[in-house]
Amino acid sequence: MTDRLDELDALSGEEWELERQHGAVPRVSPAEAVGRNARRIRLGAGRTLDEVAAAARALGARWTTARVVEFERGARALTVANLLMVQAALSHATEQPVTLPELVGGRYYVDVTPGFSLGGESVREAFNGAPSDVVLEGAAFVLQGKRERDRVLATVRSELGDDVTPREANHAQHGAPPDLAEQRAASSLGVDAMTLRVLAERMWGKSMPSERNARSDGTSPQARGRATRELLAELRAELERVRRGDG
């Protein structure tokens, strides 16, 4: 997941917009979003984990270096107190103002509940005081019925095995609907489009269209066609391996 997020951060604005529209954008918890941004701000200022922990202690918190590590990994519970403390500690350690919006936004979806995710930019807008109707425009999906989520999970598990997690199945459902290439590939393989997305994410850490564009550099239709055929062959081989039960 971290490699995928780093890859998205490195994209230009135009590349990111294309990826956002056609690719599978990662989902993170609120704690993971804040922890990732805290680490980015700390490293950008050339500060160490020890310095952030010391800054927090100077402000009255009993933070150790190990606790800062856990926080940056998104392994600590995110409370209002923790969020305000990391903002203050980073501001103190880096000797520059750190705002709450800086700590929450990013190129991912943030899971608010299992059925409701917001784009990172929408989360940032919420912390900047945007009204709820503006924020909700960035929702990946709003409270999908549990029946539909369960249906997709059951379908994907029937085609890939019971080790498919609810998070994998939910991740496949949000973002843009399957494009023509995904629909054709799924039909050729005899699987559901959501199964195709889970398989692609497992193999390449991204959607099939994103991997196709990466291999063909988005050049001619002929190059994209060759890349698509190559990906389809890899998907077919992996699907056959899964069905055989190979490790």
Set down the secondary structure blueprint.
Layout: H1 2-9, H2 13-22, E1 27-28, H3 30-44, H4 49-58, H5 65-72, H6 80-94, H7 100-104, E2 109-113, E3 116-119, H8 120-127, H9 132-136, E4 139-142, H10 146-160, H11 166-173, H12 180-189, H13 193-204, H14 208-216, H15 221-244
Parallel strand pairs: 1-2
Antiparallel strand pairs: 2-3, 3-4
Question: Describe it for me?
Answer:
The structure is a single chain. With 247 residues, the protein is α+β, with helices and mostly antiparallel strands. The protein folds into two domains: 1-143, lambda repressor-like DNA-binding domains (434 Repressor (Amino-terminal Domain), Orthogonal Bundle); 146-244, no CATH class. It is built from 15 helices and four strands. It has helices at residues 2-9, 13-22, 30-44, 49-58, 65-72, 80-94, 100-104, 120-127, 132-136, 146-160, 166-173, 180-189, 193-204, 208-216, 221-244, and strands at residues 27-28, 109-113, 116-119, 139-142. It has a four-stranded mixed beta sheet with strand order 1-2-3-4. It starts with a helix and ends with a helix.
Q: At the fourth CATH level, what is the homologous superfamily of the largest domain?
A: lambda repressor-like DNA-binding domains
CATH architecture of the largest domain: Orthogonal Bundle
Domain module count: 2
SSE pattern, N- to C-terminal? HHEHHHHHEEHHEHHHHHH
Determine the strand fraction and express it as a percent band.
5-15%
Instruction: Count every beta strand, where a strand is a DSSP E run of 2 or more residues.
Output: 4
Instruction: Determine the CATH topology of the largest domain.
Output: 434 Repressor (Amino-terminal Domain)
Radius of gyration: 20 Å
Largest sheet: 4 strands, mixed
End-to-end span in angstroms? 22 Å
- Given the helix and strand composition, which structural class is it? alpha+beta
Strand order of the largest sheet: 1-2-3-4
Report low-confidence residues grouped into runs of 5 or more.
141-145
Average pLDDT value? 84
**What is the CATH C level class of the largest domain, in words?**
Mainly Alpha
Shape: elongated
Tally of helical segments: 15
What proportion of the residues is helical, as a percent range?
Answer: 55-70%
